[in-house]
# Entry
Amino acid sequence: MPATFLTFAAGRSGRWQVPAWILAVAAFFGGVVGVVVAGQLEYDTLRDLGALPMLFVAVIEECAKLIVPAALLFVLWRRRREPSDGLVIGVACGAGFAALETMGYAFTALLASRGDIGAVEETLFVRGLLAPAGHTAWTGLTAGALYALAARPSGRRVWIFLGTLAGAIVLHTLWDSIGAILGYVVLGAVSVGWLLLQMRHYRTFTPAPSRGAQRSSHAVGAA
# Structure
């Protein structure tokens, strides 16, 4: 399911030309780095506070998942600064994170059930089915807002990025706090719906012209 959703996001618009190797790197390292960093920070917080509120979990994980998209932003800086690229890369990182986290939950289910494969299959099925409405959507939203800020830096874009990150954290916190199927359906619809709206919005997004393009236009005007 995470891979299928990533394929859908990558092919949603002809303008989104993120190479497959970048998506593979984002999915692999986004998952590994995100899980390792989030796990370490959550362990340290648990050790210091004695309890780990769901809000802290959401803040740590949503920030950890942005490490790889932010690193790739500098790699792609001279070539493309499209927020749509950031959204797709964020979806890839979220998919990798969700896959590794699901493996951990499946292993926990295996131990808790004393080797019951049925419990493992149920965990894999449910978490795989819900993955597009969770980490993949949230990281896609925040990474897209980050790339939009890099493409057109402004105070307004800073607030949009911070608001998007805060929204993802709130959705993540609510997701971890509820235990009802209806709640998951509502939150999933909000997350995926928000992501689809951003996909549509980024189709008409125009990055700020580069300095070289600006110099060329001035030269033509002077001529």
